[in-house]
């Protein structure tokens, strides 16, 4: 086992930059998620770590050794592909054994390690099945076993759950996380799914257009986003354009005056044009015939209900736990007047982009 270090890792295709100077350290036993929209450079970064794509500049260091120019088969990594990449003509056991065969591991040791890996993912009873005889979740676990059986220093996962349905995705997500923690695997995972990243990773790396926008824990990114992109990508957020008018007052472009705490955010408060970032669940609302805000849509989501509200020309999304039957909140409908409230410190100022 070992750490993974990326130093100014970059990839350019002609005049187009796919990844720009990524610096990152994944410590022993840590799981770090590369998170971002399609085309942000996260998969390119992972493939440079695996050795499938040569970097234009920068270094990849695994366990203290520079492997930037080392071929994939000679790197101490195990990778799970988005498509699983199982050999259809090979049994489950043969698929898992493939990496060991390439490493010239003896038959007896190979068979023992294959069964141990299959037991880890609870598939040892299906060792003789072919991939087509397995469910999607089972195929995913075979791919995990194949990556784990080589005892990699670094475990690489490329959108490993994207081909599973929502219910199965949640189950396998927890299995992967439990396995990673139990084995102490240094892991880099690529995903575009916020919930997946928030629930699995120790730290998140938010990327956009080939650049790292912010690195931190789920709580750090959610509570203290560095910029509007991170605020809008990690969770849901009301981003209201305007400018700071006083230490506790923000004037939205619509003219609405919204209270905030300009000292709550680290660093100096933005001057001139700015954005007020306000999470939907931090906003309270109460029915009030004299209220200045009006309900424009109500969406029932079971445990939570979302209210689209307009106040003085500013649209806001409010998310509240679904009220019990008989509660006045439960009876709110489009057109009803409400009063909105929030803690000033919950309204964070971000520089306008």
TrEMBL record:
Taken from the record, one Pfam family name reads ABC_tran
**Record keywords:** ATP-binding, Nucleotide-binding, Transport
List the Gene3D superfamilies hit by this protein, alphabetically.
2.40.50.100, P-loop containing nucleotide triphosphate hydrolases (3.40.50.300)
Domain ABC transporter, residue spans: 4-234
InterPro entries, sorted: AAA+_ATPase, ABC_SmlMolc_Importer, ABC_transporter-like_ATP-bd, ABC_transporter-like_CS, Mo/tungstate-bd_C_term_dom, P-loop_NTPase, Transp-assoc_OB_typ2
GO MF terms here are: ABC-type transporter activity; ATP binding; ATP hydrolysis activity
Question: Which domain of life does the UniProt lineage start with?
Answer: Bacteria
Q: Which residues form a coiled coil?
A: none
An example Gene Ontology CC term for this record = ATP-binding cassette (ABC) transporter complex
Q: List, alphabetically, the PROSITE patterns matched.
A: ABC_TRANSPORTER_1, ABC_TRANSPORTER_2
Look up keyword Cytoplasm and say if it applies. no
Record-stated family = Belongs to the ABC transporter superfamily.
The protein in question is named Fe3+/spermidine/putrescine ABC transporter ATP-binding protein
Q: Which organism is it from?
A: Teichococcus aestuarii
């Amino acid at each position: 086992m070992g750490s993974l270090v990326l130093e100014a890792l970059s990839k350019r295709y002609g005049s187009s930059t796919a990844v720009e100077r990524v610096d990152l350290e994944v410590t022993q036993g840590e799981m770090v998620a590369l998170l971002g929209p399609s085309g942000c450079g996260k998969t390119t970064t992972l493939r440079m770590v695996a050795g499938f794509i040569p970097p234009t500049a920068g270094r990849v260091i695994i366990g203290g050794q520079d492997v930037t120019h080392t071929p994939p088969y000679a790197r101490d990594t195990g990778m799970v592909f988005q498509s699983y990449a199982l050999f259809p003509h090979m049994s489950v056991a043969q698929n898992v054994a493939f990496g060991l065969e390439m490493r010239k591991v003896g038959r007896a040791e190979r068979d023992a390690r294959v069964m141990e890996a299959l037991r880890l993912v609870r598939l040892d009873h299906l060792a003789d099945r072919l991939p087509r005889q397995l469910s999607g979740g089972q195929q995913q676990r075979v791919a995990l076993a194949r990556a784990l059986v080589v005892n990699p220093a670094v475990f690489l996962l490329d959108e490993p759950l994207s081909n599973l349905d929502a219910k199965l995705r949640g189950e396998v997500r927890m299995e992967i996380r439990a396995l990673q923690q139990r084995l102490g695997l240094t892991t880099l995972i690529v995903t575009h799914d916020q919930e997946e990243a928030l629930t699995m990773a120790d730290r998140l790396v938010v990327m956009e257009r080939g650049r790292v926008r912010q690195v931190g824990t789920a709580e750090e990114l959610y509570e203290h986003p560095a910029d509007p992109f991170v605020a809008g990508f990690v969770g849901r957020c009301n981003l209201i354009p305007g400018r700071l008018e006083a230490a506790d007052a923000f004037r939205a472009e619509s003219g609405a005056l919204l209270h905030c705490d300009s000292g709550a955010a680290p660093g100096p408060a933005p001057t001139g044009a700015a954005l007020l970032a306000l999470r939907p669940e931090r906003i309270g609302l109460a029915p009030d015939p004299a209220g200045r805000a009006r309900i424009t849509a109500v969406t029932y989501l079971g445990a939570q209900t979302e209210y689209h509200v307009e106040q003085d020309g500013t649209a806001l999304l409010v998310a509240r736990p679904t009220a019990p039957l008989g509660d006045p909140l439960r009876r709110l409908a489009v057109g009803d007047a409400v009063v909105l409230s929030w803690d000033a410190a919950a309204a964070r100022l971000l520089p306008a982009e």
